[in-house]
Amino acid sequence: MAFHQADLRAAAGRARSGRTKIAKDLGEARRQRQDTAFLCHSHRDGELALGLQAMLREQGWDVYLDWQDESMPAQPNGETADRIQAKIRNLRWFIFLATENSVASRWCPWEIGFADAAKTRRFILLVRTHDSRGWYGNEYLNLYREITTTNTKNVAVFNPGQRTGGVLVKNL
Q: 49-74: per-residue pLDDT in tens?
């Protein structure tokens, strides 16, 4: 099962309206005992990323988007790569937002490859998306647990290839 991109766009609207609580920084998120996550995504999918960020914030998570970080260089360079690696190491979870753009990106496959080496697979999660043309992802993404919505509209994590026995994100 995958997230429909229209649902992520609707959640982005909730984020823009200010209805989702945002931690000021990583320290505040940890003090509030929020789970922290690096969201790997294509910048072409900024609205989808914002929507997923809002959905996960509603579950008590603090989700990092690099383009919201004012300390990042204006143009990608070696310093960008170093900072991204540090964020991936320091945030508990790594989430890959699988879209047509992210699977074709130069940065996203590099980021998930780095995360795979830096973290145990338990802390790497996949978010498949779909639209009217189908769902998006590569075969190697099937190695990772998947965040999806349940029939009751809860957000849960399932083991690769499973659609039962998931754990609600807020209970991880």
A: 999 999 898 888 899 999 999 999 98
Q: Which residues of the chain have pLDDT under 50?
A: none
| Cα angle 99-149-22, degrees, rounded to a multiple of 5 | 80
Q: For residue 118, what is the domain's CATH number?
A: 3.40.50.10140
Split into its structural domains, the chain has a count of: 1
Triad 39, 41, 63: Cα angle to 5°: 20
Q: How far is CA 63 from the centre of its chain?
A: 7
- CA dist 95 and 98 (Å) reads 9
* Nearest CA-CA partner of 135 in 122, 124, 126: 126
> Is residue 111 a contact partner of residue 100, using CB atoms and an 8 Å limit?
no
The pLDDT of residue 59: 86
Q: Write out the DSSP string of 125-143.
A: EEEEEEETTEE---GGGGG
Closest CA to 42 of 114, 115, 131, 112: 112
Range of 86's domain? 3-171
